[in-house]
C-alpha cells in the first residue's frame, strides 16, 4: 500500500466544477417610506411658507387699496377690500398737504450718511478685531457684543444729552454749557447712527473666514496694512457690505423718534415726521396717510430688490459662521 494520502481538490476547482445556478430572482423592493417622507414634508413646508407670505403681504395690500379709496368708503362698515371708486388723486393731494419733497430729500441724505459711516467704520473695526493682533482684543470685542444687548430706548436720553452738551457748538462753552450743542443740526441727525455694534460683529465674522495666505502674500509684496484691508480683503466680503448697508438704510429711513427729539426746524424734518401731519387729535386722513406711506415704502422695496441676492448670502453666511 502506498503511504501517500489523497489531497483534497482546491476550492477554486470545486467552484469551477460546480454547476451554474440561475441567479435568484429578486423581488422588487417597495418604495422606501423615507423617499415619500421628505416629499410630504416639503409640501407642508411650502404650504406653511405660502401662508406666512400671504399673512405678511396682506397689510401692504390693504395699505395700497386704502390709499385710493374715498373717505366715506374708508369709514363705512363693513369694510370693503376692493374700492368702489378708485381715487388716484389722493396721492397728489397728499403731496400738496405738506412739503414732502423736503422730507424725502432729508430722509435720503440722512440715510445715505448713516449707511456710509456704518459700512466704513464697521468694516475697519471688524477688520482690526479679526485680523490684527493687539492686547485686549477679545475684551474690546466682548464690549461690542454687550452693546448689542442694550435696548435702543435706554440709549436715547444719554445720546440726547451728549448732543445738547457738545462743547464749542451751538453757543456751548468748553464744558458744554450755555447753548444747544448739536441740536437742530445735521450732526445730531447723522453722527449717532453712523456706527453700529451689529455691523462690527457681522464684518468681524466675515473677515475671520478669509484665508490668511492672502494677507501674507500681500505683505511679502510690500503692501501696507490699509492696502490689504481696502484692496485685498474687503472686496471679498460683498455680501456682508450689502447686508449692513440695507439694514442700516432701513433703520435710518424708518426712524421717527430720534429726528423728533433733536429737531424743531421744519427744513430738517424727515418723511416719517411728515406723515404725522395727517394724524390730528380728533381725526385722521387715512387716505392721505396711506398714500404717503406707500410713497415712503417705495425706496425700501427698490433697494431690497437690487441687493436681495447679497442680502440673503450675508444673512445665511453669518447664521452658519456666527
Protein described:
By secondary structure, the protein is mainly alpha-helical. The protein contains 15 helices and no strands. The radius of gyration is 33 Å and the shape is globular.
Topology (elements, then pairings):
Layout: H1 11-17, H2 33-66, H3 71-75, H4 89-97, H5 100-131, H6 137-148, H7 152-164, H8 186-190, H9 197-208, H10 212-220, H11 225-233, H12 238-253, H13 257-262, H14 271-274, H15 286-321
Low-confidence stretches: 1-7, 11-20
How helix-rich are the residues, as a percent range? 55-70%
Order of helices and strands: HHHHHHHHHHHHHHH
Let me know the average pLDDT: 83
Cα separation of the termini: 87 Å
Q: Using DSSP, what is the number of strands?
A: 0
Strand coverage percent:
under 5%
- Characterize the main sheet: none
Q: How large is the radius of gyration? A: 33 Å
Structural class: mainly alpha
Summarize the structure.
The chain is mainly alpha-helical and 322 residues long. It has 15 helices and no strands. The model is unreliable at 1-7 and 11-20 (pLDDT under 50).
Question: Which keywords apply here?
Answer:
15 helices, mainly alpha, 322 residues, single chain
Amino acid at each position: 500500500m502506498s503511504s501517500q494520502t489523497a489531497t483534497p481538490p482546491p476550492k477554486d476547482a470545486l467552484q469551477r466544477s460546480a454547476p451554474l445556478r440561475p441567479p435568484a430572482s429578486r423581488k422588487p423592493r417597495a418604495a422606501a417610506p423615507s423617499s415619500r417622507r421628505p416629499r410630504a414634508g416639503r409640501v407642508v413646508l411650502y404650504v406653511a411658507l405660502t401662508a406666512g407670505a400671504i399673512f405678511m403681504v396682506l397689510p401692504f395690500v390693504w395699505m395700497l387699496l386704502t390709499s385710493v379709496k374715498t373717505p366715506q368708503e374708508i369709514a363705512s362698515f363693513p369694510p370693503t377690500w376692493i374700492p368702489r371708486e378708485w381715487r388716484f388723486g389722493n396721492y397728489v393731494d397728499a403731496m400738496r398737504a405738506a412739503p414732502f419733497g423736503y422730507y424725502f430729500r432729508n430722509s435720503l441724505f440722512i440715510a445715505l450718511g448713516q449707511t456710509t459711516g456704518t459700512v466704513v467704520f464697521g468694516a475697519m473695526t471688524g477688520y482690526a478685531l479679526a485680523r490684527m493682533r493687539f492686547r485686549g482684543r477679545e475684551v474690546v470685542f466682548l464690549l461690542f457684543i454687550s452693546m448689542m444687548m442694550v435696548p435702543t430706548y435706554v440709549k436715547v436720553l444719554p445720546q440726547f444729552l451728549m448732543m445738547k452738551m457738545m462743547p464749542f457748538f451751538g453757543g456751548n462753552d468748553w464744558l458744554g454749557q450755555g447753548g444747544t450743542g448739536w441740536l437742530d443740526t445735521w450732526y445730531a441727525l447723522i453722527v449717532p447712527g453712523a456706527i453700529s455694534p451689529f455691523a462690527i460683529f457681522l464684518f468681524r465674522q466675515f473677515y475671520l473666514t478669509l484665508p490668511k495666505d492672502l494677507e501674507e502674500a500681500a505683505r511679502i509684496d510690500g503692501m501696507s496694512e490699509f492696502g490689504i484691508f481696502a484692496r485685498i480683503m474687503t472686496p471679498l466680503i460683498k455680501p456682508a457690505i450689502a447686508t449692513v448697508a440695507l439694514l442700516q438704510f432701513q433703520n435710518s429711513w424708518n426712524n421717527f423718534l430720534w429726528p423728533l427729539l433733536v429737531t424743531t426746524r421744519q427744513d430738517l424734518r424727515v418723511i416719517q415726521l411728515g406723515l404725522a401731519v395727517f394724524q390730528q387729535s380728533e381725526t385722521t386722513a387715512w387716505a392721505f396717510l396711506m398714500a404717503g406711506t406707500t410713497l415712503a415704502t417705495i425706496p425700501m422695496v427698490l433697494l431690497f430688490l437690487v441687493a436681495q441676492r447679497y442680502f440673503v448670502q450675508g444673512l445665511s453666511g453669518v447664521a452658519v459662521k456666527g
